[in-house]
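USER: Write out one fold?

ASSISTANT:
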Amino acid sequence: MKTRSLLALALTVVVCAIHVTAQIAPRVVQSSVNQINLYVLPTGVRDVVTIAGSLPAGDAAARRGNVAIATLVGEMLDQGTTRQDKFTIADQLESVGAELSFSVGNDTLNISGRCLKKDLPVVLSLLFEQLREPAFNAEDLERVKTRLIGGLQRSLESTSAIANEAFNNAIYPVDHPNYQTPVKAFIAAVGQATLDELKTFHASHYGPDGLQLVLVGDVAADQVETTIRTATTGWTGGSAIIKTDVAATELTDRGTVVNVNVADKTSVNIAWGQASGLHYTDEDSLALDVGTAILGQGFTGRLLAKIRDQEGLTYGIGANATNDTYNDGEWYIKGTFAPELLEQGIASTRRELEAWYNDGVTAKELAERKTNLIGTFKLQLATTGGLAQSILRAVQRGDTLESLDTYPDRIEALTLQEVNRAIKRHLNPADMVLVRAGTLPGASN
């Protein structure tokens, strides 16, 4: 309990300890340790270290076989290793108040952790032991399967999850890396997965090649490099991110309406948008992001201010551009309406979407949103966790670390013409897919 209290206390002073106005890129120590891309940022924070990382072992890497294998391998990482059972590992982390976790996304296995400075060698050694030598115990796999299937089955009752799946499947072809396997098919794949399939995937995709690891806080790069070099001796292999050269905008039908009726629901979720054709680092991406924020992000976004606050038609609504880190992404509006307000809500959403598209944003909106975005960005950099994730996102996108330092200036430099041109150039309401999922008015159950 004492160690945990010390860690909690240290975390509370993180915001005060980091000088967010200082340049980030010159302070990051970059190195390659046994093919691992390592980024270490020492800060003024005392005693605390935050870890963030990713490995190209996400669901997209398993699409040619059993689509659930990548997720199952990630779920098995904390179930013990060939050296220690899961309880021993958990006790080691608990005894020093440290945290270490894994999650599987579409593109990558995601790594996160935090600990006190003195415990970093132990935590890093455990991290690489779990990555390199998972036990793959048959009984643990069955428990993991049961838990995973239970969560997936619950999502079949979520109108939000149903709308998201239908929207994704409508805008991406099945061979696009961003395509989401339907939940029912994923459940079946989980049930069919074998230990041999997990071991084969692990051998093919887990290795130092492609591993990005970021450490931020009270940390010395040379000591980290020594610890990692020892922990990864003899470790080889890995894989690359799954990418496509064909934009989803060239392959999908446009302007369709997808209705998914789900009986006995108190709300209807909509997802309305299209494949954007943009990667995050593309020329117009930042301008479109800013324009999208004006339309539908936060309480000052047009959608929330007008459709919820003024007209009272929705529980929540917003717009975003996403899934563009490694491949071309998507743009959407997502919202929730009561069934009896659905048609009115869609009409109001269409009105705001078309006005934004046809008339653009105003100079006043742009100036206010610039201030908001820059302030939010600086707050993200005011903790070790925010810094670590920001550095990781930059390297995942293939961007430079200098992009973190120049972000405020690039936001300030955007002109009204650039923002409105990006909206028109990459979007078209007439091409957008509209998905409605829930208890639809007039539909037979």
Q: What stands out?
A: The radius of gyration is 23 Å. Residues 248-438 form a domain with the Cytochrome Bc1 Complex; Chain A, domain 1 fold (CATH 3.30.830.10).
